[in-house]
Amino acid sequence: MGVNLLWLVPGVVGGSEEYTVRLLHGLADLALPDVDVELFALDDLRRAHPDLVARFPTHTIGLRGRAKALRVAAETTWLTVEVRRRHLDVIHHPGGVVPLFTGGAAVVLTVHDLQPLDHPENFSRVKVAWLRAMLPRSIRAAEIVLTPSRWAAEQVEGRFGLATGQVRTVRHGLEPASFGRVAEDEVERVRATYRLPARWIAYPVITYPHKNHVTLIEAFTALVGGRSDVDLVLTGGEGPAEPAVRAAIASSGVEDRIHRVGRVARDDLDALLAGAAVVAFPSRYEGFGVGVLEAMARGVPVVVADSTALPEVVGDAATLVGADDVAGWAEAVAAVLDDPGLARRRSQAGRAQAVTFTNWAAADELVDAYRAETRGGRLRRS
């Protein structure tokens, strides 16, 4: 099997990078004797993920991530030649697009979500035009299409007229370390580093429009009045919605209690999540929502939007609120803050839900898709 990682620009492609890297680590952990996987990637992968490269035969091309046109060209030239030369049975494209030439191997495609088609206003015209042209063609070229949630699978099936079963779900999965408890001294360290109070509400995402930060800021403003011991912590880099987020904070009247910590080291992020009283996730659109899963794995109560794939991820372990219901968000978050019994039940239920999402389980789902190809069980369109 070959995995095309030429699209994976470390630190740029976001959640799809975490998903793919965790999935491949899970696949390596399975150590299956009948599954041989080779990676095809940019040189940057060796620097960003040396532990992953050490676990698989990895073939790299001397391109940097910013050279997008050259990366696309390499997929249709260099990668095609490599697939043929190495006599690969299956080539997996986890980046959402199949290149013009596939080298003759069976094609597995991962589509993380359809947001650029569903909400083109959130993306550049160039990206929307590219995906409108390439995505239908890519899906036609794939024998099997993978998505990270059943909700995303249904969207792909409905938009592109695929029968049930032609799209398979390969969920996000967490490595075993994600389920451990973060040491209290680590939580105290980040509390001191970021000058936080005894309790805080966390939202760990980049300021993209669909992440809906403004609703959470307005809800926090409404609930914080009688609670002097709780602040709001927003992690993640700056995205296209940054001006609106800054304006909402400036007009909130509680600007000094909203902490923008930006991109932080993984250890800091783990401690900020583990120490939070609540993780609030008001996103309007998620193909999965791995930040919610990470919080539940740490035993943190979560409140999430009742939209897209989020209810599927949390099951019965979280409070669901309409994405744009400011009063509902204020009420739901306040309930967890003010009721220790509710917080404890949400914590326990979240851990129980999260433990079903391991990278080993996700890798098993991936291997099932690969084996369907090599055993001649290709899924045909009607």
Short overview:
The protein is of the alpha/beta class and 382 residues long.
Structure description:
The chain has 2 domains: 2-173 and 359-374, Glycogen Phosphorylase B (Rossmann fold, 3-Layer(aba) Sandwich), CATH 3.40.50; 180-354, Rossmann fold. Helix content is 45%, strand content 15%. It contains 17 helices and 13 strands. The chain has a 7-stranded parallel sheet, sandwiched between helices. Helix 11 links the parallel strand 9 (230-235) and strand 10 (258-262). The longest helix has 17 residues, at 125-141. The radius of gyration is 21 Å and the shape is globular. Residues 377-382 have low confidence and may be disordered.
**CATH topology grouping of the largest domain:** Rossmann fold
* Shape, principal axes of CA atoms: globular
Strand content: 5-15%
Q: Cα distance, first to last residue?
A: 26 Å
Helix and strand element order = EHEHHEHHEEHHEHEHEHEHEHEHEHEHHH
Question: Can you summarize the main beta sheet?
Answer: 7 strands, parallel
Number of strands: 13
Write down the overall mean pLDDT: 92
Number of domains: 2
Question: Rg, please?
Answer: 21 Å
Structural class: alpha/beta
- The CATH H-level superfamily of the largest domain is Glycogen Phosphorylase B
Output the keywords.
13 strands; six-stranded parallel β-sheet; alpha/beta; seven-stranded parallel β-sheet; 382 residues; Rossmann fold; disordered C terminus
Please describe the topology of this protein.
Elements: E1 2-5, H1 15-30, E2 38-42, H2 44-48, H3 50-53, E3 58-61, H4 68-76, H5 78-85, E4 90-93, E5 106-110, H6 115-118, H7 125-141, E6 144-147, H8 150-160, E7 167-169, H9 184-193, E8 199-204, H10 213-223, E9 230-235, H11 242-250, E10 258-262, H12 266-274, E11 278-281, H13 290-297, E12 302-305, H14 310-314, E13 319-321, H15 326-338, H16 340-354, H17 359-374
Parallel strand pairs: 1-2, 1-4, 2-3, 4-5, 5-6, 6-7, 8-9, 8-11, 9-10, 11-12, 12-13
Helix pairs in contact: 1-17, 9-12, 10-11, 10-15, 13-16
